[in-house]
Design goal:
About 80% of the residues lie in helices and about 0% in strands. By secondary structure, it is mainly alpha-helical. The chain has one domain. The longest helix has about 55 residues, at about 205-255.
């Protein structure tokens, strides 16, 4: 996290001196620092300690790493900030082929959430620190890849038309279904939490229901906000395209006259 902050600040200050706030604004800086803060809250705050005792806190860890940290980190980037690595990023996307396709990001995002909530893997992550680190690495990687296709200022594939809506809804609905399943499951399905003493008076099944509700509600809220943002962005892009077309027509008419 120190490297993430120090490296970003170095580049941000350089761009700020040479290009001004156009490519390195306070909004980008705040977003990046907010993303790093989300990682810190998930991994080195009391939430990390409570995650070994309370399922709901473990779920908070997951949504911070899967959605909030990636969204803020990518929102902290701009074309100017990424200029030294832009060509490398595009070359890497082409080299990765299907792995860099948005469809893979959807499958990876949904698949990681369902896979790591299989009881044997979930319990293993809680019982073995190395597996827990691997779980969190997969969640953060899936989140970064997923949100990159929607928010990155430098990417080879641009989702147009209704594609961003399909991309978002298909993912959030399937993950939300997992949250609903956990919320309404008749019994606790994770033996790790059944063996732990109750915290805050939460029985294992109630704790699981709360965790599932956190997942389902978070997915719904993020989907709603993201869709609203994508709609506003699409309107802005349409307006800019119309302005370019109008300028082209005016220039063409002026040349004819």
């Amino acid at each position: 996290m120190i490297v993430l902050v120090a490296g970003y600040l170095r580049r941000w200050l350089k761009v700020r001196r040479t290009s001004g706030p156009r490519g390195a604004g306070w909004v980008q800086l705040s977003a990046w620092l907010g993303g790093v803060l989300c990682i810190a809250i998930a991994l080195i705050s009391p939430i990390d300690t409570l995650a070994d005792q309370v399922f709901a806190m473990h779920m908070v860890q997951h949504v911070l790493l899967l959605d909030f940290a990636p969204i803020l980190l990518i929102a902290g980037l701009s074309k100017v900030l990424l200029r030294p690595v832009a060509r490398t990023v595009l070359d890497l996307e082409r080299a990765l082929g299907p792995i860099a396709h948005p469809a893979f990001a959807v499958v990876f995002y949904v698949g990681m959430m369902w896979l790591w909530h299989i009881p044997v893997l979930y319990d293993a992550a809680l019982e073995h620190s190395a597996v827990h680190v691997l779980e969190h690495t997969f969640f953060l990687s899936a989140g970064l890849l997923y949100w990159w296709h929607l928010l990155s200022p430098v990417r080879g594939r641009h989702l147009t038309g209704l594609a961003p809506v399909v991309y978002m809804v298909s993912t959030k609905v399937f993950v939300g279904m997992l949250g609903i399943f956990l919320t309404f499951a008749p019994t606790s399905i994770y033996s790790f939490y059944e063996k732990r003493p109750e915290v805050w008076g939460l029985h294992a099944s109630d704790d699981q229901a709360l965790a599932g509700a956190i997942m389902a509600i978070e997915q719904s809220i993020v989907m709603g906000v993201a869709l609203a943002y994508l709609f506003v962005r699409a309107l802005g892009e349409a307006d800019r395209a119309q302005e370019r077309e109008d300028r082209y027509l005016d220039a063409a008419e002026g040349g004819t006259n």
